[in-house]
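Hi everyone,

Forwarding the result from last night's run.
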Amino acid sequence: MVTNTCDADRRIGVGRFAVEMELSNRYDELRARDGVIRKEEVRRVHLSGVVDTGAARLVLPESVARALGFPETGRTTVRYADGRRDDKTVVGDVQLEIQGRRGVFSAVVEPARTDALVGAIVLEELDFLADCVQQTLVPRDPNVIVTELE
């Protein structure tokens, strides 16, 4: 499980910080690998995201999800910090890369967002620790992604 220095810092408002990432369409990546399309044809974008260890999932702006052609895979109910609830679209085949670490995720689509929201699932999968004091992501092991099993 990801441990972080953000929880104690929430009381002073430092629990969130920005990171840069690259998003691409996993289906496009596979087609490029198989020679069906050229690598230059893979839909991708560089995007700023907010790391929030209190959030669970990856959330993307609707404009980005549409531009990259992510397929809709379902719906989910989201709960906002103010207690409101809303029904949102979920997309799949989101290939995300942060600091050279890459994974494939589903994401909640938020029409009003202009940046991504990076939650605990992404941090766990890519084996990052959130250091909210330094406002950075730190690989637990710089050489390899570690998976914990019990």
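Residues 26-33 form the longest helix (8 residues).

Cheers,
N.
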